[in-house]
């Protein structure tokens, strides 16, 4: 066996260009299979981590019909001004599994500090938002009940907003920022969290007390929605049905009419991501299958050419005692080595690309040994199948025919 491997390696080295061309299809197949599957799993793990950032057992009801698109933020259709604080309280009281509720208003507004003026997402909410959304301040404090009662002119900045306004977030506490002509004192800076699975960059948000925004800044009565934290024993589907019934009744929506609100859980957004990633994985399997097929045909054609060009070698080996099965084994080993080396190079290239992409995309690095084993085993088996016919052809070479032709 070792002698056959040495001969196979010498033969592949002697026909380097043909070998490289034959291995290219297998290399691309292993690259596509290993790379796409690893990246899709890394993205899925990243999505699970981002779901945790939304908060524990998060449940949300908001105005308008919210649709999530893979890789993009939520898009609101048919937004209405019918969602009120009373709706939020009705949901908190009507759903038995609710532990905490955090009504919120979310609007895009310009914020100014000195000569720097930028747009931000202003979030007006209550103190329980910190617990419901798992949002902790890194510096200073978050909104407290006293701020809500006094309609305090204070705010808490997201980490990026603090950097953009003051360069050093540490220097932002106790400074003033302005929304139009309303000045708010900064009492805290939130820890950096990045974008959540809903597509909102949590570091680009500014938090203010609900009463401050509704009475001092906007003079309005409607809100965007409410975040609800459900107990661990809660059934999200049952909670969604109950919440939908409560809001339809409160908004006087007749049977057959569309809702003017959306009710969804963190799991709903996760399912959208999973569907998109499953599609990516399926496309990866299709592309790798095509590449493997092309690689198999390449090995088949190259091996047929090698058999024809090495008839003298085959005849000499037969003349000195090599059996037909020895010839078959020789060419099968060459085909398997050709495909196996191509598969190994493809796997190594894929793992390198995955590491780079995960680092650039700030995704967790994923390594699936079974995928690597499957790609390498599949490559070797492909080589054996592609080399079966040329090996049979080589075994049929007759010594006398070789001597006559040579």
Q: What structural keywords apply?
A:
single chain; 406 residues; alpha+beta; 2 domains; 10-stranded mixed sheet; two-stranded antiparallel sheet; 12 strands; elongated
Give the secondary structure arrangement, pairings included.
Elements: H1 2-14, H2 16-53, E1 58-63, E2 65-67, E3 75-77, H3 85-94, E4 98-113, E5 116-125, H4 129-132, E6 137-140, H5 145-150, E7 154-157, H6 159-166, E8 176-179, E9 182-190, E10 205-209, H7 210-218, E11 225-230, H8 236-250, E12 261-265, H9 266-309, H10 311-319, H11 324-360, H12 369-395, H13 399-405
Parallel strand pairs: 5-10, 7-9
Antiparallel strand pairs: 1-11, 1-12, 2-3, 4-5, 4-11, 6-9, 7-10, 8-9
What's the end-to-end separation, in Å?
29 Å
Percentage of residues in DSSP E strands: 15-25%
Q: Please give the radius of gyration in angstroms.
A: 32 Å
Q: Assign a percent range to the helix content.
A: 55-70%
What is the mean predicted local confidence, pLDDT? 82
Q: pLDDT under 50 segments (min length 5)? A: 70-74
Largest beta-sheet details: 10 strands, mixed
Number of domains: 2
E-strand count: 12
Order of helices and strands: HHEEEHEEHEHEHEEEHEHEHHHHH
Task: Please state the structural category.
Answer: alpha+beta
- Please report the number of helical segments: 13
Shape: elongated
Molecular structure report:
- The structure is a single chain.
- This protein is of the alpha+beta class and 406 residues long.
- It folds into 2 domains: 2-49 and 272-405, no CATH class; 81-259, no CATH class.
- It has helices at 2-14, 16-53, 85-94, 129-132, 145-150, 159-166, 210-218, 236-250, 266-309, 311-319, 324-360, 369-395, 399-405, and strands at residues 58-63, 65-67, 75-77, 98-113, 116-125, 137-140, 154-157, 176-179, 182-190, 205-209, 225-230, 261-265.
- Strands 1, 4, 5, 6, 7, 8, 9, 10, 11 and 12 form a 10-stranded mixed sheet that branches. The protein has a two-stranded antiparallel ribbon with strand order 2-3.
- A hairpin with a 2-residue loop joins strand 8 (176-179) and strand 9.
- Helix 2 (16-53) runs antiparallel to helix 12, helix 9 (266-309) runs antiparallel to helix 11 (324-360) and helix 9 packs parallel to helix 12.
- The longest helix has 44 residues, at 266-309.
- The radius of gyration is 32 Å and the shape is elongated.
- Residues 70-74 have low confidence and may be disordered.
